[in-house]
Amino acid sequence: MTPLTEVEGRRLALSNLDKVLHPVTGTTKGELLHYYATVGAAILPHLRDRPVSFLRYPDGPEGQLFFTKNPPPGTPSWVRTTPVPRSEAPRARQVVVEDLASLMWAANLVVEFHTPQWRAASPAVADRLVFDLDPGPPATVVECCRVALHLRERLAADGLDAFAKTSGSKGLHLLVPVVPTPSPLVSAYARKLAVEAEAALPRLVVHRMARALRPGKVFVDHSQNAAAKTTATPYTLRARPLPMVSAPVTWEEVEECAGATADPESLVLLMDDIAPRLERYGELLAPLFAPERAGDVP
User: Where is the DNA ligase D polymerase domain (predicted)?
Assistant: First the structure.
């Protein structure tokens, strides 16, 4: 019998709590749900008022993975949805995770959380710029950190602050708070900086997606600034054999990882690492929510 749990006055049926989802560590679904309950105060501000897309992996990362934007069948009536602009589906709606009960309902589906750079109240008007730094083997997150430091300095020259988080996979994400700006303008600026980075660091950076160009280099993916694209939400677990998290890191950690003798594993952050890091550092991405930290896109 599926146990019922009450979360903020909502009754949830949490299923298959003993199912192993991350095989390397033996992490169960119950432990996954405990993680989200523990870090709810950190992840919810990044989800709130943003339409969420789900990458579902109900049988673990080695099972079937499928990406969905539409509200899943059986979505409770109390879970908020919002209209979203989609040319192929003019009346489309997506879930908005705005409270702990909604977070736990969604986590019970076993999902990665992905969100756009804009809020539901202002579609296609970005308040964040993002770079996804993706290493092409034999490059690793070490090379990503070197590129991140270059981009941080370049963004600072334009009066913009950058904050780093792990992708929860092989690379690194940079998040930049911006004054609300139409997504096409943010996309054009991000592409410009990616092209500049390739010109400045031709042996390290590529700005085009073609895989033939990427071995040994870092792909500076600027495309996720397009209004239709999404990025892994801070603090989301990823569908990997290990319970890896897309989590913020300090610039000191990035600098250390960029060193000549750095260990790429130093920026692998697992589920059990996050609560202690929040206690130690607080919310490293808090400046994303401070209007005074948002810069104008040139």
Answer: 28-261
